[in-house]
Write a structure and sequence with these properties.
By secondary structure, the protein is α+β, with helices and mostly antiparallel strands. It has 5 helices and 13 strands.
Length: 289
């Protein structure tokens, strides 16, 4: 009986210690801490919402794929906008025409001038639908042996002139080493070589690659500071004003001195010149300033 009494007392004390929060190590439990571990229904819903925002590896790959696709379609990507999707001539037309004829084709994502089939050796300049004012243009180009072309800015199609070069300055694209300089009025001088602001400012160095190889131009036209520049294959080779006394002085000593609208249009289109020779352009993108 005595033992039963002792066992009863022990059971009672054990129950009492549990009820008042005494743990086996002899100190009180912190009931507040234990309570904090409980996730209320409202908290659970918030946690689930945050969890849903986590991008899993598979989702990340899909998002990256979508981003690249948008970039290829001409959507803004890090402030750059592509002017070509590499598959069509969307956003381009022949000068003063509504569409692009078969003198241009697309090969491996590049615009390629292959020559007119209608008997017109020139006059098939490719012009952007959009107009631009201040911008940075990045464009890759490649010429065939002895070919000549150019990149226009400030093209105006509302004038009475029948060629882009009557209003638009040109950055020269040419095979320096194999072009037949005796075939026309272009003399073999720096102001007519690759990278030149044609007939106005020659490049500081000749770093164009040979025909059949890709080159890259970074062309900046910034009317905000009245300066233009050309970088060829990563090297700045030409700098020039866009208007003012210095510009007027350059014009007065060039073939453009009697062309009343030449270089006068701050806002205009981009143009890729047809000069008869096979030429290719790709990775055409622009950043407006």
């Amino acid at each position: 009986m005595k033992y039963l009494y002792i066992i009863g007392i022990c059971l009672f004390l054990g129950y009492l210690s549990y009820d008042i929060g005494i743990n086996p190590d002899g100190y009180k439990k912190d009931k507040k801490i234990e309570k904090s571990k409980v996730v209320e229904p409202k908290q659970a819903k918030m946690l689930e919402k945050e969890k849903s925002k986590i991008v899993k590896p598979k989702q990340a790959k899909m998002l990256e794929k979508d981003r690249k696709a948008l970039g290829a379609l001409g959507q803004i990507n890090n402030d750059w906008k592509y002017l070509s999707d590499g598959k069509s001539f969307n956003g381009w037309h022949i000068f003063k025409k509504d569409s692009v004829n078969d003198s241009w084709t697309i090969e491996d994502g590049a615009f390629v001038y292959v020559g007119a089939t209608d008997g017109n050796s020139t006059g098939n300049d490719l012009i952007s639908d959009r107009e631009f004012t201040s911008f940075i243009l990045s464009i890759d180009w490649k010429v065939s042996k002895g070919a000549n072309s150019g990149i226009f800015y400030g093209v105006n199609e509302n004038s009475d002139f029948n060629q882009p070069y009557f209003t638009a300055p040109e950055i020269q694209v040419i095979d320096n080493n194999n072009y037949d300089w005796s075939s026309g009025i272009d003399g073999e001088t720096a102001i007519h070589t690759a990278g030149a602001l044609y007939d106005l400012v020659g490049p500081s160095e000749n770093n164009a690659k040979s025909f059949g190889e890709w080159n890259n131009y970074i062309i900046e036209i910034n009317h905000n500071i009245n300066r233009g520049s050309v970088s060829l294959n990563g090297i700045n080779i030409v700098n020039f004003p866009l208007s003012g006394e210095e510009w007027d002085e350059m014009i007065s000593d060039s073939k453009f001195k009697d062309w009343s609208e030449f270089g006068k249009h701050k806002t205009g289109r981009i143009g890729l010149q047809d000069h008869g020779g096979r030429v290719s352009y790709k990775n055409i993108k622009i950043k407006e300033l």
